[in-house]
Design goal:
Elements lengths: L1 E2 L5 E2 L9 E4 L2 E4 L17 E5 L5 E5 L1 E2 L3 E5 L2 E10 L9 E9 L11 E3 L3 E8 L6 E7 L6 E6 L12 E2 L10 E8 L2 E8 L7 E7 L7 E2 L6 E2 L7 E11 L5 E9 L11 E9 L5 E3 L29 E2 L7 E4 L2 E5 L13 E6 L5 E8 L8 E10 L2 E9 L7 E8 L4 E8 L7 E7 L3 E8 L5 E7 L12 E7 L3 E11 L7
Parallel strand pairs: 2-25
Antiparallel strand pairs: 1-26, 3-4, 5-6, 7-9, 8-9, 9-10, 10-11, 12-13, 13-14, 14-15, 16-17, 17-18, 18-19, 18-20, 21-22, 22-23, 23-24, 26-27, 27-38, 28-37, 29-34, 29-38, 30-31, 30-37, 31-32, 32-33, 34-35, 35-36
């Protein structure tokens, strides 16, 4: 049975996923809030490269930035920013802030965006339990001297109901951002991130008896940070606090598993840490670890988690869904004229996020017949139009031998290399395999019933820069005609599961 693909574009990346549930060590994606073209366009979501000190580079993606999800009076609300740019250097990006809502988070029936006037990022809703009013706080641009501001808002229309007011801006770190407001035992608590989004990242807090201030900074600041430590998980910050049913406080924060300097692995991932309130009413968090001591997750057998087929599949920009035929164990792509280097177009590409530092992904390709139009199709590790690697099957024309090609690209590091090998004959099937550790990708191929042949090893550092989001492993087809892929397996360890 053929499944209609769900729209889940690859877009800019500061966001915590609002619909990701952890049960018995497994993540379940229950839905996509942005899931149809009528809601938003990502046709202008290019990635901009900024040169930093020590020959580092920052890749600032367009698209969706940090979101906040809230539940109030029977309705779920998500507020977010869509950063729109066409990749033109020196041109200021447009910041489209919006609210979407639903009364059933499992149904993936989210509203169209309701836009509101705010020139900034990281919007967060706060429903005041004392007045019933809704407020929007966010990080007012431009940076790095951003400001945390607040105004009353009508969540149904997006209308501003008050002037913007500046709140507390942190302890002096650059880019104060990611604000959230909580009310507890007579105090309003404002929690923010500051210090930039990488090695200096931290979380700080202040409180006040009313939203007008004055705000008192926590004596425990920063209440979460890995800056200046040898922790494996670095760049921790931009967190959300919550209380569980047993009264234990936690935070979910962003962090990076950093096995070596400037090696950003899977980009910013979500981590869970314990929180503790002091007797004088201040919150602080444990440092983020791979494993939380004393934590055991016991699944509830009465709960059945379900999701629409293909809910975790990802596309680039505004996907043309007519190019994708997805069924059990087989995906057919109609090749597009646009390749992985395309900045704003949507190449024929579908994949999933790489979630293991050590794993194996593979696919079996049924090579198309040679034609007058070149075809290039295969397996790819994709970060954006500037950074990717691919192992592919190429046909040039009726007179040329088919080839297997490796392409590694990182524009900021001036990497754009290709290696290829000619095949004696066109195979009936071509099995492509990608094996990876924290430090290297190993690529191999096998034709029909032949033996596997290792093609190349690529250091993961070749694709690593000061990242916000991690790599996507997917399949692609460039050129013309249809290409059939079978048994697409991602992140397999001891067991395999085909898409």
């Amino acid at each position: 049975m053929e499944d209609t693909p769900a729209i889940n574009p690859i877009i800019g990346g500061f966001a915590l996923d609002p619909s990701l549930v952890l049960v018995d060590g497994t993540y379940f994606l229950i839905g996509n809030a942005i899931n149809r073209h009528e809601q938003l366009s990502f046709s202008k979501s290019s990635t901009l490269i900024y040169g930093l000190e020590n020959e580092d580079y920052l890749y600032a993606t367009g698209g969706l930035y940090a979101l906040t999800i809230r539940f109030y009076d029977g309705t779920f609300y998500i507020v977010c920013t869509n950063v729109v740019n066409d990749g033109e250097e020196g041109k200021e990006s447009e910041l489209q802030n919006f609210i979407i809502s639903t009364t059933d988070i499992h149904a993936s029936k989210w509203s169209d965006p309701v836009y509101f006037d705010f020139y900034g990022i990281d919007p967060s809703l706060f429903f005041d339990p004392n007045t019933g009013k809704a407020y929007l706080c966010g990080s007012k641009s431009p940076g790095p001297e951003t400001r945390i501001t607040l105004f009353e808002i009508d969540v149904k229309t997006g209308k501003k109901l008050s002037e913007e007011k500046q709140l507390w801006h942190g302890t002096g770190g650059i880019y104060p951002e990611g604000p959230h407001i909580y009310f507890r035992e007579g105090f309003y608590y404002l929690m923010i991130a500051e210090g930039g989004t990488h090695e200096g990242h931290s979380v700080t807090m202040a409180r006040s008896k009313n939203l007008e201030g004055p705000w008192e900074a926590s004596p425990k600041n920063p209440i979460l940070s890995a800056a200046g430590t040898d922790e494996y998980i670095q760049a921790t910050g931009h967190c959300e606090a919550f209380e569980d049913k047993e009264g234990q406080w936690w935070d979910v924060c962003l962090g990076i598993r950093m096995g070596a300097p400037n090696l950003y692995g899977l980009g910013r991932e979500t981590f869970l840490t314990r929180g503790t309130w002091s007797e004088d009413g201040w919150l602080s968090f444990d440092r983020a670890k791979i494993h939380i001591e004393g934590l055991s997750v016991v699944p509830d057998p009465s709960r059945r988690l379900t999701a629409a087929p293909g809910v975790d599949l990802l596309y680039i920009h505004d996907a043309e869904l007519s190019r994708y035929k997805i069924s059990n164990r087989q995906i057919t792509l109609t090749a597009s004229p646009d390749g992985l280097k395309s900045a704003n177009a949507s190449p024929s590409f579908v994949g999933k996020r790489q979630r293991r530092l050590k794993g194996r992904s593979s696919v079996t390709l049924l090579p198309p017949a040679s034609s007058s139009t070149p075809t290039n199709a295969g397996l790819a590790v994709y970060k954006d139009e500037h950074r990717f690697l691919s192992l592919s099957y190429m046909t040039s024309n009726n007179d040329s031998s088919p080839t297997v090609r490796l392409h590694v690209s990182n524009k900021a590091k001036s990497i754009d290399r290709e290696e290829s090998t000619e095949l004696d004959t066109a195979p009936q099937t071509l099995h492509l395999t990608l094996e990876y550790t924290e430090t290297a990708y190993k690529l191999s191929y096998r034709t029909d019933t032949g033996e596997p042949k290792e093609f190349a090893q690529v250091p993961t550092m070749d694709l690593s820069d000061k990242d916000f989001v991690g790599p996507i492993i997917g399949i692609f087809a460039e050129g013309s005609g249809e290409v059939v892929f079978q048994d697409f397996v991602i992140d397999s360890a001891s067991s395999q599961r085909a898409v």
